[in-house]
Every structure is written in C-alpha cells, then in structure tokens.
Design a protein that fits this description.
Strand content: 25-35%
Structural class: alpha/beta
Order of helices and strands: EEHEHEHEEHEHEHEE
CATH topology of the largest domain: D-Maltodextrin-Binding Protein, domain 2
Helix content: 25-40%
Number of domains: 2
CATH superfamily of the largest domain: Bordetella uptake gene, domain 1
Largest sheet: 5 strands, mixed
CATH architecture of the largest domain: 3-Layer(aba) Sandwich
Length: 221
C-alpha cells in the first residue's frame, strides 16, 4: 500500500484574487499533521528550506499531531485561504480518515486544494535485532504462536501505520495488541526494549538499532 504524500492548502486558495500575484510577502507555515521525528516530519523539514528559497520567504514547520493526522489537517482546512498556511497530506489524512470516522472534521475532497505530489513511499515492518524471526515467514509463525504477548506500535489510531498493521493482522489471521504513539519515532525506545514490532515509512532504519523483516516494493518519489 503506497503512501502518497502531498502539499495541500485551503480550497479557496484555488480561486485566489489578483492580490495573489504579490504572494508571498511574509513567511509561510507548513503544518505537519504528526509529531516531530516521524517520516512525514522529516520529509517536511527536507523540502521546507528549498521551498523557501523558491518562494523567497521562510517556510516554518508546525507539528500538530492527533487523531491520525486529522487534527493538523483540520487546521489547514480552516485556515484563511491566503496561501500562508499549507500542510502535508498523506493517505491516512485524506483517504482513510474519511472512512474511519462517522463525522470527520473535514471533507478531504472539497476542503483542500492540492498543490503537488511530493513523494510516494513504502511501509516496512521492523523489529529489534534479536527478535526471534529473520524474515516475514518466520515473523508470521512467531506471531501466531505468541499473539497474546506480541504488540505492534504505530503513529496513532487511524494513521497509515495503524491501518497497515491491521491489514497484516487480518492477512495472517491474528489479533495483536495495538500501542499507539504520537509518532513512530516515539515508539522506538519501547520497540528496542520489548517484544514488539512496528510498521514504519521508508526502508532505512538499521542505524536506529532495528532490523527490517519485510517491505513493500519501492515506489517512485
């Protein structure tokens, strides 16, 4: 399940007035709808300096986590449509949340104006290095035999990492306890200390002391 990541803005920006020709005249705020240290936050901090150079104004990152990214995205949806507050939207914030909640805080199809696709990434299943499984097949066998004590961490209820874990549980026919965090980065200390697995974005986490067990095929970025 590829994770699509885009820059979004309040919908009315799409029909901006003639004054938009002078935009921007002051710094912009880029809302990252997750806490610091996660994959979306890292991506935002990578592109913000270059975006600022292109626009001639500083782009300031603001982390607003909660509700699987819906809280931060809601702030963007309700922002003044002047182009000075933009956000990063992902599959979870603009597709999954619309189906998971009876009354989502916004309409992803009508409350935003897409600015551009900036990345497509994969999810990867990781564990600590001494976890008693060396590949996905061994992990599935271990999970089935130890489902009562195994846990999985994610970037919060309703997030893409949460849904991906649920899909894995369903595919192998087990139920594993979910431990939500505000970001996947916050779950790393517990991952290294406990009998736990985690779904993360991307494929380069060996430097953190973890070991990948399975990953999706690479997608263009």
């Amino acid at each position: 399940m590829p994770r699509m990541i885009s820059i979004i803005a309040a919908l009315a920006l799409a029909s901006a007035s003639a004054s938009a020709q002078e935009w921007p005249t002051r710094p912009l705020t880029m809302v990252v709808p997750f806490g610091p240290g996660g994959g979306v936050d890292v991506l935002g901090r990578m592109i913000a300096p270059r975006l600022g150079e292109i626009l001639g104004q500083q782009v300031v990152i603001e982390n607003i986590g909660g509700s699987g990214g819906m809280t931060g995205s809601y702030k963007v949806a309700r922002a003044s449509p002047d182009g000075y507050q933009i956000g990063i939207g992902v599959t979870g914030t603009h597709a999954q949340n619309q189906s998971l909640y009876k009354k989502p805080l916004y309409d992803a199809a009508t409350d935003f104006a897409p600015v551009g696709l900036i990345a497509e990434t994969s999810y990867i299943l990781i564990t600590r290095p001494d976890f008693p499984a060396a590949n996905l097949q061994e992990f599935i066998a271990y999970a089935k035999a130890n489902r009562a004590k195994l846990q999985f961490g994610s970037a919060g209820a309703g997030s893409g990492t949460h849904i991906t874990c649920l899909l894995l549980n369903s595919a192998i026919g087990i139920e594993v306890t979910h431990v939500p965090y505000r970001t996947t980065a916050q779950g790393m200390p517990d991952l290294l200390a406990a009998d736990r697995a985690e779904i993360r974005q991307g494929a380069r986490y060996n430097d953190s002391g973890t070991r990948p067990r399975a990953a999706e095929p690479a997608h263009r970025a």
